[in-house]
Amino acid sequence: MSTPSDPRPAEPPPNTQPARPARSGRGHRVRRVLIGVGLLAAIGLGLAIASGYWTTDRRLAEGTAEEATEESFYQVPDPVPAAAPGTLLREEPLLSAPNGSKAWRILYHSTDVHGSDILVSGVVVAPDSPAPPGGRPIVSWGHPTTGAAQRCAPSLGIAPFDVIEGLTQLLDAGYVVVATDYSGMGAAGPDSYLIGDTEGNNVLDAARAARALDGTGAGTRLVLWGHSQGGQAVLFAAQRAADYAPELHLQAVAVAAPATNLAELLKADVGDVSGVTIGSYAFAAYSSVYEPTTPGATLESILTPEGAAVTDEMAALCLFGQNRELHDIATPLIGKYLAGDPGTTEPWATLLAQNTPGGVRLPVPLFVAQGDADQLVRPEITAQFVAGERALGTEVTFETIADTGHGLVALRAVPKLVDWLKTAAPASSTAPSTAPAG
Fold first, then answer.
1. pLDDT classification of 1: cutoffs 50, 70, 90
2. How far apart are alpha carbons 259 and 343 in whole angstroms?
3. What's the pTM?
């Protein structure tokens, strides 16, 4: 997740109904530059550019050129042609790939929480070198909150690679990296914000799509890596991998400041602008997805009249580039947004619990990084999650990143993550590419 008042990335918390009209608009160059610049400033990834891994002038020029095909690429056919999850519908090379790599924009089939066939967008990046025997392992990345509307998708940014924390090191180590936008972002589709099964399926199907893409050299070994909202997404992907994508060989899961106990996180954060903003994304998504089948899942059942009246308006705004608008709407609602406790008010308590990861033993090693100064995903909540996983028998490596808040935790955890992967899921592993997930 990311906060509008704090220039750091924020945290939280089927029906196949179309995305809400208010969330379907998409601007062009000005909006893309704003988001691209905002992401760089927000999570410190300008360091990657300074290192020379990307050539800034080339990236911006080629990213602008790619804009010409963007609108048509994201258009979803009506009706959506039926296909298996992970099937590619559309692909397009991205000339603005980091030096030494090749990249594509993709549109692929996935499924939502209700089991409906949907289309999801994202990007794939692979080393520009011959793949080893057995193929390259895949890292499927879950991004932190950038918003919940279509136009807030990371793949729409003029520099879509900058948000993938650790991309440089992962490519250098020999991994293929795929980054989903999540359903309803980029391509039109059902809302997905903090809806664990939808996000988890999107993460797994992105890995399948990367395998189907000519030129990646991707095998079946899989690592999941996510930050904040993306941490919740990849934890759900890990829990579902063996049943949902049995052809993939899940080797390891890594998260930074993951959104785990959604009810507690919401309660801890709702007293400031960031909490109200994150709440608007979550409540709008939950009411959109669950209201048709869940009695009482309306905004009016949990929010004040003032909060319910502006939630869809906030949910249509992106976290980066539209902070001022979010701040103007959210500030008067501090202390006046919730009409009750979502953790004890039904059906919200049940919905939040259903979308909280954990409670099952993961069959692969888990890496968890947490900043000790995080004011969004509170360190004590992450520690509780870690303790719960260890009690279930999950092998957990827990790293506290000193003097670090929410926005920089994933970036600062990358050196520890890469060292951990050398043992947990080495890119040079000779594990059979056909091994089952889990």
1. low
2. 15
3. 0.85
